[in-house]
Amino acid sequence: MILRLISANVILGLAPIALVIASWQGLVSFGFAPAALLPPPGHVFGRLLQQLVTWTFQLEIAATLIRLFAGFAIAVVLGVSIGIAAAASPAINAAVRPIVRVLAPLPKVALYPALLLLLGFGHGSKVTLVAADALFPILLSTYYGASTVEQKLIWSAMAAGTPRYEILFKVVLPAAMPSILTGCRIGLVISCIVVFLAEMITSTDGLGHALVTAARTFQAVDMFVPLITISLLGLILNALLGAVRSYLLRGFPEA
Amino acid sequence: MMSPTTLIRRIAPALACIGLLAIWQVASLVLKNDSFPTAIEAIKAIPDILSDRESLINILASLRRMAMGFGAAVLFSIPLGLLMGRSRAVAAFFNPLLMVIYPVPKAALMPIIMLWLGVGDVTKTLVIFLGVSLPVIYHSFEGAKGVEEKMLWSGAAMGLSPLQRLVRIVLPAALPEILTGCRTGLVLALITMITSEMIARQSGAGNILFNALDMGQYDTVFAMIIVVGAMGICLDAIFERIRARLVRWSEPQFDMPLSFS
Amino acid sequence: MKVVPSRSSEWVRPVTPQKPASAIIEIDGVSQVFQTSAHKDHVALSDISLTIDEGAFVSILGPSGCGKSTLLYIVGGFVRPTSGVAKIKGAAIIAPGPDRGPVFQEFALFPWKTVLGNVMYGPRQQGVRAAEADAQSRSLIEMVGLKGYENFYPKELSGGMKQRVALARTLAYHPEVLLMDEPFGALDAHTRTRLQNDLLNIWERDRKTVLFVTHSVDEAVFLSDKVVMMSKSPGRIRHVIDIDLPRPRRRNELLLDPRYQKYVVDIERMFDESDGAGFPA
Amino acid sequence: MKVVPSRSSEWVRPVTPQKPASAIIEIDGVSQVFQTSAHKDHVALSDISLTIDEGAFVSILGPSGCGKSTLLYIVGGFVRPTSGVAKIKGAAIIAPGPDRGPVFQEFALFPWKTVLGNVMYGPRQQGVRAAEADAQSRSLIEMVGLKGYENFYPKELSGGMKQRVALARTLAYHPEVLLMDEPFGALDAHTRTRLQNDLLNIWERDRKTVLFVTHSVDEAVFLSDKVVMMSKSPGRIRHVIDIDLPRPRRRNELLLDPRYQKYVVDIERMFDESDGAGFPA
Amino acid sequence: QQTIRVGWTIPAEESKYWMMRRPAEFPDLGKTYNIEWTQFQGTAPMTQALAAGALDCATQAPLSLSNGVVGGNLKAYIVAQHVFEKPGGFSVYWAVMDDSPIKTIADLKGKTVGISVIGGGTQGPFNLLLKQNGVDPTKDIKLVEVGFAVSEDALRQGRVDAVNMNQPFAARAEAKGGTRKLFSLSQAMPNIVHILEACRADFVDKNPELVKAYVRDITSGMKKALANREETLKVVSEVLKAPVPVLETYLLKENDFGRDPGAAPNFPAIQKMLDIYAETGMLPKLDVAQFKHPTIVAPLQ
Ligand SMILES: Nc1ncnc2c1ncn2[C@@H]1O[C@H](COP(=O)(O)OP(=O)(O)OP(=O)(O)O)[C@@H](O)[C@H]1O
Ligand SMILES: Nc1ncnc2c1ncn2[C@@H]1O[C@H](COP(=O)(O)OP(=O)(O)OP(=O)(O)O)[C@@H](O)[C@H]1O
Ligand SMILES: [Mg+2]
Ligand SMILES: [Mg+2]
After folding, report:
1. Whose CA is nearest to atom 8 of ligand 1?
2. pTM score, whole prediction
3. Segment A234-252, tens digit of pLDDT
């Protein structure tokens, strides 16, 4: 029963993707786009399969994933802890709120050259950029979730003798979990975008770099392979996050 | 008479800004890095930007695009998010699609986008639209999911059609969460407003910034960053007003008691 | 678990679903099975059959967790039963409708609307003009004793006040059938008595059909034409008791009536005897 | 609104705060004013003074919205009164503590924890070892009649079941003072009686102090040493009534006791007479 | 009145900057035809835009244009030339710190070297020079992408051991001192053409008069730029938003790139470059003739 429900949902989810691929094929077939810019999907997926088993391409994926995970993890840890602290303490709130207001909307790519010089051309600068961009959506969601925790849950925990700082972990964190996970989902997508962008701007490896080299020499098929890869990575990571989510929120009404 | 705490609350933003600038100043002096000018140098470059008529027109053009992208995104994303939140089928249909589309950096798709939409306003507005819609969709989605079922039942029993329930119950009930999404969206709107002008530029704030970056004029780059930050503060303050008005009913009744004593 | 045969008193009759001409709600072999998070099946209602006549006041009594609310949800059309059907006026119930007005145990007020806004919501939805809806709502608010609180938001109300707003909100749009889930549970005795009287007045005037969940045997006997007693694990109907007391009923008269006393005592005894209470000894 | 002088019966005494040697909780001139969203001040409690002796069972009766819950929040240390002080053992109450265990009207269960997890929370927090806490919690869960529901999440429970979990959760960590806000409000008569007895047993065994909000005059008289009657708008204490009935009390014995009957009838009459009910005629 | 969509970039297209900033100086501009200007970051995206038909004419480098032709089915004509490396003038060079142990190209072995664009126009001559000196550009060095703007910093911070320098950054770095030139591209070949103007062939064939007018204005723009240095400094400063004193240090001076007075493309030099790219495996062999339009090419009067 559940299996059938899941597979029905999977089919429903695959339908629009199939539709996109079909219209892609259509665009190519009916000449709305030159093959030099938009190769037919068959070629792209064929090349993708070829590439996936090669060691060099796997290395590119690994480089991108390492940066993605490191940056995202930093963003989650910082975002959640700052968000909760700001919700819990007016003093921290007074300090954090204006800083967030200023820093959140800054175009972080503009700082990328400075980051490159400070942290080098390796992982450090890209991880920092990813973390900086993914941080604020997570922070804002966490803050919202934490500041709307049902008061009486906190009261109950306090009355049971929970020290204040522990309440943050034992009540505020789990109660804010739905919002936090929404923030994480957005942060994850942004991480995917930014890591790719950073690699496009300056890098010697990673999917973004693979795309740029292919784009400069007009190898359209090779250009689309990293694009499709990051798409699929986004899909897979999001599915994983969804699984984590339904486990963590199993007690909540909306789960 | 203002109590000390409200006084602190009032001037906290100014203090924080000054603090940030001070940290920046010290950091840049310590790091001694040409691509990271001091705060004072950057501030000195601001008047040049703001006194230049052309720059102002550029900035206004960017803001106009941002407003359009933001507005369109909000109008599009909230209904989609709410529908996804209330219908498993809709969610199952759109979720994978969105998760395939969003992680692709728009900059990488530029050649294709240019093919159909050219290099003008439409393309940039589309990029802003995509940036804003991401958080708005997902916050609306989760907000709608979390709406207490019995409230919807009450509405249904009063004879509200599913659509009316969506608009008149799910929307207001999820509004606090939706507005959080819009706030993140606002942040992303400013960011994408700039970055959408990274590759192809006509007129805009990003144009000024990336030109300066290409020319290695880092004081202008950072001056522009300050200008964007200031825009962020203003927009956020306006947004906060609107938000407070819309969702006054949802404010917690008591301060979080963790801060007692 | 078998159905205990009814006791030999003339006003207790065995559970035999029957369909008089005037039946408005028919519940036929309804069962409800929930899937718990632990992926186990939990039977909340098992093979419930019940007929409610048009204009009848029927109370449901039963131990906590026996499925009273679930049964109400099914009649309301909010939940589809796992098996069996519930019908209203002969048509299967597949969705909620303004003919059935619920008062939920958890109130489910709209937090973004004031007391007045909540109460006016239904009438406005039914197309009543603003001024009229306003006036009607204000008088209902006054009836439930909340005059002066019109502009309060739900979060600013006490538990009992919220419950009264929920009651007023449902009464405001005049549903034919009222589905009330412990609507007076959070009220003090005094307020409760007043509201019972008000409810009876409305009922007698408009001849609404009422399905009323309560924990108070007194209340059930005082208000109802028929008391349905449920037992637990899984939720079943144990007894259906017709309350044969004259109407209109006045509380102080009734309290002295030995038949009333007998109903109360007998029902309480049935409760005690019932093995279905699902309660460890 | 002036305080109505107490009626001339020997067990009703006027509100005179006094401080016996064994007082555990002293409430002294406490007022609570809420700011409503409409930026108006709303007086929920006005100049409340009350002393509760150690080991006493004190019930609070009063019309809906008179400030009973608010008073409990103040004693619990969750809300700071606008003026006046509440003290426990002579020290001003400024924060919640494990010496005072609340059972909230809205239950406030942790949605991410199962029934067992909720009940175990307190003992674990107090440093009880896991195995022991587990065993204790399970027996408490059995006591409140929820055996078999240990692994259910709150969303899967009925209203009455949630209320019982909330009760068990508080009892589990053995607070010295119990602050109970209509803890049996959502329960059927049968379950309620059982839990009343269980509560009395615990109370008699451990000699806890109990502050008990209820809407049932019966329940208040049956359980309490002292009944505090409040009136509304603004919330004030009207009467404090000592219940002078022998202990241990057995319900069936008591029901036949004319003194018990008199208490109930008198308190009900006081309710009716009270102009403080804030209820339109 | 027809419109021509033109892509441009910074920093060295003075004739186009004149057209943008001083349109009144050009008799046809804004009267018989219009230009819709779009600025790009680098030439590669403009090649894509040309291939996608989003631009009609754009600044190009020989390599990016050829890539478009080879991979993107682009057909285009080279109609004018902006800057090249005139002998004795500025040539893109690789710099090291004064105290660096790297004295010759061979010393680069095992070092981290910065280049503005990996696979970009400078890499052909760069690879050639390395190979000539016994350094395998793919194995012996670690190549990282360092944009011209951050080159100097990257070098001074020690992030790279050698890095390429371009104007105006080179002038700035030299003014500061502490760096020295290791080798320059002119050692691989003279007259390297950096940027030129290209137009889509289909567009030219359809609108020959329009493109002619455009090329005419480029030609006259180049003339004005060279004739009136003072005004050119102002124009460039407006476009680049760079202060005049900075530009003063190099623009149109001896240490700047070369500009042909008629903006005429140097086809033989371009052919030489294409050969180098072919030699280093970056492109298949190409004949420059395919970029030549019989009539529409600067100088046009
Ligand atoms: N979502 C759910 N998942 C699993 N079990 C559920 C769910 N909802 C209700 N139940 C179970 O169904 C049974 C009946 O619940 P219901 O709320 O109808 O009881 P009730 O008679 O209204 O009780 P009360 O008087 O306490 O309100 C309970 O045992 C409860 O645990
Ligand atoms: N946050 C608030 N803002 C404004 N008024 C409030 C707020 N909280 C409570 N009140 C008011 O305070 C009064 C007392 O509320 P309280 O919850 O203590 O009543 P109660 O005696 O517990 O009633 P009940 O028996 O219905 O639970 C009510 O009139 C209520 O409207
Ligand atoms: Mg129920
Ligand atoms: Mg209360």
Report:
1. D156
2. 0.89
3. 999 999 999 999 889 988 8
